[in-house]
Structures are given as C-alpha cells and as structure tokens.
Predict the structure of DNA sliding clamp PCNA.
Amino acid sequence: MLELRLVQGSLLKKVLDAIKELVKDANFDCSSTGFSLQAMDSSHVALVSLLLRSEGFEHYRCDRNMSMGMNLDNMSKMFKCAGNDDIITIKADDGSDTVTFMFESPTQDKISDFEMKLMDIDSEHLGIPEADFHAIVRMPSAEFARICRDLASIGDTVIISVTKEGVKFSTRGDIGTANIVLRQNTTVDKPEESTIIEMHEPVSLTFALRYMNSFTKATPLSGQVTISLSSDMPVVVEYKIAEMGHLRFYLAPKIEEDEEETKPET
Amino acid sequence: MLELRLVQGSLLKKVLDAIKELVKDANFDCSSTGFSLQAMDSSHVALVSLLLRSEGFEHYRCDRNMSMGMNLDNMSKMFKCAGNDDIITIKADDGSDTVTFMFESPTQDKISDFEMKLMDIDSEHLGIPEADFHAIVRMPSAEFARICRDLASIGDTVIISVTKEGVKFSTRGDIGTANIVLRQNTTVDKPEESTIIEMHEPVSLTFALRYMNSFTKATPLSGQVTISLSSDMPVVVEYKIAEMGHLRFYLAPKIEEDEEETKPET
Amino acid sequence: MLELRLVQGSLLKKVLDAIKELVKDANFDCSSTGFSLQAMDSSHVALVSLLLRSEGFEHYRCDRNMSMGMNLDNMSKMFKCAGNDDIITIKADDGSDTVTFMFESPTQDKISDFEMKLMDIDSEHLGIPEADFHAIVRMPSAEFARICRDLASIGDTVIISVTKEGVKFSTRGDIGTANIVLRQNTTVDKPEESTIIEMHEPVSLTFALRYMNSFTKATPLSGQVTISLSSDMPVVVEYKIAEMGHLRFYLAPKIEEDEEETKPET
C-alpha cells in the first residue's frame, strides 16, 4: 500500500505544470526512499528527472516498490482542482489499477478525492553518470526564463558561453543578432538574486531554445536555477525543490557546425 | 413614462454579465413594485428570474406597467461603457420604441447617454409555485463557482447530495471520478464564508454542469449563493442582490438512469 | 557616428508600442537637434510624427545627419528584451547597414546588445504647417482611450463637438446611438485629471474610430492628451514625452454627408 501526504501540496501542482509540456505519459516510481520520475520528452531529445525524498512528506508509507503509469494531462486536470494551500495525499492499493488523490483544505471544511486510472507504460530507466562539469552557473530562475524567452523572439538556438567574468547567452536570426551577458554577482542582499559562476574550463555550447523554454516552466519551483555545462555532454538544468529534492532537465548540445543543415528542433 | 435611477449602477452591469450567456433576447417588465425579468435560456432548459424592487432605486417612476424587449448582447455593450462607480438611469417614454441609458460619473464631469431600439419579444410569464424544499444549502458563491468549474474538467454532470453532515458534489468522466465534500460550517469569522445546510430529507440530484457553470457567472453579485433542492423538482440557485432583490436560476434535474442514453446537454 | 544614450529607456519601448500598429517600416532621422520620425500609416490616411530632442538624452552624439530605415515589428521584438528600468543606447557607424541597441540593467549586472539590419525606405518628409486651431481640448489620456474604445463597440465613426461648456463624443451604429459629454474641469487636485477646453469657435468634426483607437496606444506615454481641432483640417492628437518631445498623430476629418457611401475605414 502507498500513502504519501504532502502538506505543501502546491509543490506537486508546480511540478506537474513544469513537466506536462514535455512529457505526456510517465511512470512515477515509489520506493522507501522517495517518489521519483524519469522520462524522455515525447520527441526523445530531452530527459526529465524528478526526485521527492520521503523525508519531505508529512506521512510516507510505501510497503513495496511501485511504478504507476499516469497521463500527465489528466493528472494535471485533477491537481488544478486542489487549492494552493491544500494538503495533498496520494494513495494506491497494491496491485490496484487506480490511484487516488485527496485534497484537504487547511481548515478541513472541504475534502476532495479524485480517482484516476493508471496506465501501463514501457520505460527503461537510464543510468545517469555523475559527471564533472567544466562550468556551473547558478542564477535567478526568473532571469534565466526571461533570457530564454527573449532570445526565442530572435533565433532558434542559444549559445551559452562561460568565462570567469560571466556567462553569455547569444542567438542569431533573420532579423539580427543578440548577446546577453550576466556578470558574476554575489554581493546582492538577497541570495536568490545572486549569480555565481564556478568555472574549471571555459565552455561554449549550443542548445535548442525550444527545449530551454520548456524547462523554464519549472521557474515557480525555485528562485534559483543551476546550469551545469561540459563540452560534448548534455547540459543539466536543475531546479531545487525546497528541502525535498529536485527537478532536473538534461539536453544534449547541438553540433554547431551542422546547425544550419540539421535543425532537428524546428 | 419610466425613469429609474440607480446609484450603484455596477449592479446592473453585473446582472447583465450574469445572464447574457444564457439569454439573448428578453422582456424587462416594469411595474410600480419593481423592475423584473423572467426568461428561458435559448435551449429552453433553464429559467432565469430577476427582481429589483422599486425601493432599491434612488428614484423610481413607472407611470404604468411596461414590458421592454431588449437584446442583451447589445444592452451589455452599452453597459460596458458605464464606469463601475457611475450612477445609471433607465428612461423610456410611454409607447416609445427606444430606451435610454444614462451614465453619470460620481463627479458629474462625464455624462453619457445611450439610446437603444426596443424589440417585440413573445414571452409567456410562467407562474413559479412556492415549493417546500428537502434541503437548502447556503455557501460562499466563489466556492460554488470553483467546484462547478473544477468538476467540469472531469465530467459533464454533477450529482449534488445533501446529508446532515455536509453537501457532496460528484462527477465521473473518461479520466476518472471526483467527489468534493463541504461540511456545514457556521463558526467562521465572516458570515460570507459560512456554509449552512438546512435539511429536512436527504436528497441526491443530478444536473448538467454546463448550466451550473453559466449560473455562476452571477458570482460577483453576492458573496453567498443559496441552492434549494427537492426530489424531482428544479433546483433553485439564488444570488441575493444587496437590499434590492435577487437573481434566480432554475434547472430541472436529470433522470440519473437515463443519463448515458439521453445526455441532452452535450 | 551615432551614439544616443537614454537613461529612461522605457520611453523608447512605449513609443514603439504606440506606433507599430500604424507604421510597419519607417526612417528614423537623427540630427544634432534630435531623434525624429515622420511616417504615414500603411493605408496612407494618418500621419505619425515623433520628436525626441537631443537635450533629453544623457549622452547624444550625432556627427552628421543620418536616416535609418527600420522595420518596427523587428525593432519592437528587440526592445521587448529590454527591462523597464534599463538604460538604452542606440549606436550606428557612419555608412553602416546595421544599428546596435544596447540595454544595461540599472545595476550593470546584465548587459545586452542587439544588432539589427537597416533597410532602405523611400519617404518624403511632409512639411506640416503651423495652424491656428478653432478648439484645443486637453484631457486625461486614459479617459480619451476609454471613450474611443467604448464608442467603437457601438459605431465606426466619432463626431467630436466642442462648445465652451464641454466636449461631446458621439456615434451611431446598428444597435443605437451614444453621446458622451465631458465638462471643462480645472479644479481637480491632480493636474493630470483636469479637462481644459480652449475654444475660439465651436467646431464639430467626424473621424474614423479605428484610427483614433490606434492613436490611443500612446496612452502610457503621458497622463494627458491634447486634441486640436479646426474645420476641414486634420485633427492633431498629441502625447507629450516628458521633457523630451512629443508623439503626434494627424487624421483628416470625414466629410459627414458622404459618411454612409464612402466608409473607407471599414
């Protein structure tokens, strides 16, 4: 039997809003250590990885490992019915083909339960090796979202270049070119507004803006985003989920020389 | 001659916004006692009944009974031109085929008058018998609107069930089922947030969510809504209009067994 | 060489938002006295005239007169990437076929530069004679925008009539007629809310609401708008740009008798 009770239920609403554009159907994996999801996006280009550790739940019971296949659009419709302050409980019996979501208002005057059918979804769990990154940029998540949105109005791809002084986001399109430079900045009053660059080697990689813009749907989850870059490795865009875990997106860089010919993302 | 002056003109704007989705053309009836409207919705399933008592107007002159046929979309276009703080006056000469709406800003610096053609509309006034209800639920109007909207994302109909402990709103659709339970609650600080259940007999009735969602367009008129239910009788969904009257919607329940076959509302 | 630095960069964003609906491609003219634009709208009915005086810029360098042809939609895409508090610098080398826009955040932590291709645009500069107006109305720009929007829901044209007592905006359409009267009002606390009528002769002129509604896109530029009217002359609708200049729109009146036949604007 599975019963997970999360006081800050709005976290689950935000997680769904963050990933449902990329992933349509996915297995949620539940074990004694936590509630997790790993899925490729529907065009098999980006990888989404979610972890919510069991310690973050008010109540966490998972008698044996379960993998529950869910349609994220349907799940999102149900979670939209939860209030932002609601306590959310996820319940499933062993071997059941349904899952129940229970939403309790803080005053307990309104209690909703939604039952959803589960799906069988084939998926293989990819091992993601721990990597050493050439550069790690931590910056305000809203600023990253703004930059990806702005650049997408000019071009299709973004070149992210990191030097000791700062990080540069560049694009080029029919109407012209754009370069946005952020400087390392650790002296601000609020830690959430700082930009911190940890660089071992300079790096410059090209990515499809379309996916970057999908990743930024996770902005409400965290005030900061961490972008980890290595040559010829997928970038990792990570949003921490307060005290509980993280939502990570992986995207392979484009080979710059072939950019004009291939353009698989358009 | 007719001349009705309403200081809180925004009430009339809200009334129009509440009913213009259901009713396209309707007769407004004016007598010495008040300004009223009774109309079936365009698919002849729901009934709308409005009453604004003469005492609620700052100035109310109605020399003889008049019935003025108006197109509510056109009327709404004109009322949208009134400011939210404007004083609204409705004027018509006896036998005239036009009506004039005058909007005065609180400072009297801006005065607008709109003249609209009247229409001939056939309508029979239905007598609505006073009924004894099995159960009457009074609850926050915004909560009722939220529940109807949420359930409509899952299914097409709502089953409203009342017991002494609370009221349950249920639906079922392709993606699963939903149950929302509200408990009687009279101890809140603000009377507008209370949920009060007056029950003589348990009752459980099924309604088309499409109409319920139209009714909730009246939410801005009142902080509370009253839902009056009896077996095999139309439900009455009532919004009080401060000190002046009410806007009531009537809707016949669906016969549950036939639900699958008939579905007249889809 | 050209280098114009404007601390209040949001002014340029607002100017673009105000004119890009009317004008698609236009020459920006730069001389030692200022940065200006004059262009007919794409249907050659209305004239737009912008002036930003050199004194209003923090830094203004223009070695010799330049005329830079720009596509306003593309320019607007780039300016949307500027923050509202950003300092904006416009740079171009003599004879270059590109222009560079630089946006600096107030803290200097984010610096963006956008390069846009220039276009060759034929244009003749029209001399606009200084005119004596029969009546000049100065009024809150938001009120003017509201009136134009409201009347457009009833009819296609507006008759603006000025008398000593006030200014009347009238229209007529299929659903009825509308008259909105504003009285002279100089006694309000805030000068931005005053309505001041300077009248030498009564005047009554008819204009296409479609263009008036385009002009009101300039509302964010200024709290007041000035409407200058003379019989058989184009109306001038002017928005002052704080300390720097103005944005003016010119529109010829319609000949009222022919209104029904011609209706070139529908």
In short: Chain C has a mean pLDDT of 92.
